[in-house]
Amino acid sequence: MTVSYQVRANASRPEPRAVLTLLKPVTWFPPMWAFTCGAISAGVPLTGDRLWTLALGIGLTGPLVCASSQAVNDWFDRHVDAINEPDRPIPSGRIPGQWGLGIAIGWSVLCVLAALPLGVTGVVAVTVALLFSWAYSAPPVRLKQNGWWGNLAVGLTYEGLAWVTGAGILLGNVMPPAPLLLLALCWSIGAHGIMTLNDFKAIAGDRRMGVRSLPVQLGARGAAWVACGVMLLAQCVVIALLIAWQRPLHALAIGALVLAQAGLMRWFLQQPVPRALYLSAFGVPFYVSGMMISAFAVRALPFVDGSVR
Length: 309
Prior knowledge:
Layout: H1 2-9, H2 16-23, H3 29-41, H4 49-76, H5 78-84, H6 99-115, H7 119-137, H8 147-170, H9 178-198, H10 203-209, H11 214-244, H12 248-270, H13 272-282, H14 284-298, E1 303-304, E2 307-308
Antiparallel strand pairs: 1-2
């Protein structure tokens, strides 16, 4: 292993496969899904030019904006990753020298250029998302140094901003009505818990490098309770909103998904550290399914001045 690492470290250019690994395609799904949910919640026909707008927005949120945030995060986390996951592209040397930083900057610029066809709403949203992604990882702000603020920032951008952008663009570059904003906020807050689950795999390195993730601050059991509580509470608020908006069947469907998650969470709370990955893999799909159900629930509501009549 040592010889292999030295050979990689002496390379002058990154391996193409390593660049793809750096951009982490597996992480692109959440903002792409949230953007799609927002577009559906707008309640407009997804045909013609709107269909192309939707496709561009999905491509922008995942392979571009989310991918750039992953490159930024890996560059500024390279010292922590050398402890937690030394086989990652940058600490392993497969992406040598300053190439990691160059990819992060280049991909960020590409994001802004790709957003131009989406108009003012798209460009502003992408710019805000990029600012958050750099603030999350880069000093001196480095929001991820504190799990409370860092996880909230990710939830608000990956889920909330993507949802609002999808709805706003499809509605004609306007601010979405209040019910859509409320749903986006609820799902964003719930995503705070999902991000906390992701922190369990890096407890040792975070503690050594001074990253105050929630598992480091609260301990594994305390962070596990917070993660589950935040996810469940956000979904319960969504259920209450749908009932208030006279969408009981949609509320019932999300309630069933919440019960399924609660069962998995009970199992997870018994041994949080080894089971966090399994809850992410099998519990989070129930969560994101609820997002889509709520998007279909509100798309037929009569909006008047941002309120439900």
